[in-house]
Amino acid sequence: MAKTILIVDDSASVRKVVGMALRDAGYEVIEAVDGVDALSKMEDLKKVHLIISDVHMPNMDGISFLKEVKRNPRSKFTPVIMLTTESAEEKIREGKAAGAKAWVTKPFRSPKMLDAVAKLVTP
To answer: I want to staple 81 with a disulfide (CB 3.0 to 4.6 A). Which of 8, 71, 72, 102 is the partner?
Structure first.
């Protein structure tokens, strides 16, 4: 059974590229345009095995979304990879403190991202 990965990014092109790489690697992919949309979709899903989220998004940014994910008993142990253009050390520390397991900067290389995904998605 394929593992489910939620991609949260306001850029349709990023969601498309990341989604294609993940689907080609055998994962089931759900897409959301921001943190609010992602939280709504997570309510309907039985299990999300991994979340890949941008930081800078409208309505609810990635760090706020990450904090909400970690507050929810159903998702608090779900690993989160931040995939973002943000590379400021302070923001990276804030993300790690909020519970991010990995921080990948855009532009990214699919093999590097897929390696991070494989390490965080439990078999």
So the answer is: 102
Please report how the helices 62-71 and 35-44 are oriented relative to each other, as an axis angle in degrees rounded to 10. 30
Closest CA to 18 of 10, 119, 1, 49: 10
Question: From the CB of residue 15, how many other CB atoms can be counted at a distance below 10 Å?
Answer: 19
Which parts of the chain fold into alpha helices (H)? Answer: 12-24, 35-44, 62-71, 89-98, 110-120
- What CA–CA distance (Å, rounded) separates 90 from 72? 25
For residue range 26-39, list pLDDT tens digits in order.
Answer: 999 999 999 999 99
| pTM, entire model | 0.93
CB 85 within 8 A of CB 108: no
Dihedral over Cα of 16, 37, 107, 78: its sign: negative
